[in-house]
Amino acid sequence: MNPVPVFLYHSVVEDPPGWIAPFTVTPRVFTEQLDRIADAGLTVVPLRRLVAALRGGPALPPRSAVLTFDDGFADFYWTVAPALADRDLPATLYVTTGAVHAPGGTPRGSLLPPAAMLNWRQIATLDACGIEIGGHTRTHPQLDTQSGRRLCDEVAGCKQDLEQLLSHPVEAFAYPHGYSSPSVRRKVQKAGWSSACGVGYAFSSPNDHALRISRLMVRADTPPELFRAWTEGRGAPVAPLPEQLRTRGWRAYRRLRARLGRPVGGPPTD
């Protein structure tokens, strides 16, 4: 299996709220990127096929790619899904369940600032149309700063929320901000998730870990030349990558701030 670009998107919208704007692309850029993927001769496969290959199952086509979307923004329903359907492309949508709007109601609550988010009826419709629905916790915390009952509620409770709505198992999980740790990954596995995505800013590979799949985040400032390089198997390292000392130090600092009741944010990273 060649290195696999697992693309990570958030919102696809013209005028996003300021807090998510750096992590968005416009609809025009998004369709150009889908066309670039096709022009490069990549075969977009469902995430579950990559997971099966990582676990020793059938190999992927020689040049494969995966599309993933985090958080559950409303524009997925109105903009992203039609573009994918027009091209018959599979994708996985990771939902923060506390941010989901009940039809005619309000969300349970999450740490995400205000934005237009999907409602449960739209999520069920997307599921019925073939979009894989995955979990992204209930409130979008930095999981590697959580423990005990709170960690369990975020990881297992999210799964319960989605399976209650969809009436079938959900198996794909993504770590908010890309943050995880060995203990978090054990909790994810124990909860019954069969795969989990981080960020990593790297290609996935035959040696990648199914509970720490590396992705390439597409941002507002991602140059077209870099996106082209990704579609050609260039421009990023290949997972798995050893955890850097600065990553461990950043995790320790964030944990300390969380214990002091003054949590600190940070850019999505691995």
UniProtKB/TrEMBL annotation:
PROSITE patterns referenced in this protein's UniProt entry, alphabetically: NODB
Enzyme Commission number(s) from the entry: 3.-.-.-
Stored SUPFAM superfamilies: Glycoside hydrolase/deacetylase
Coiled-coil annotated residue ranges, if any: none
Segments forming domain NodB homology: 63-270
Keywords from the named record: Hydrolase, Signal
Cell compartments where the protein resides: Secreted
InterPro entries: Glyco_hydro/deAcase_b/a-brl (IPR011330), NODB_dom (IPR002509), Polysacch_Deacetylase (IPR051398)
Keyword Hydrolase annotated: yes
GO molecular function: hydrolase activity
Protein's recorded name: Polysaccharide deacetylase family protein
Organism name: Streptacidiphilus alkalitolerans
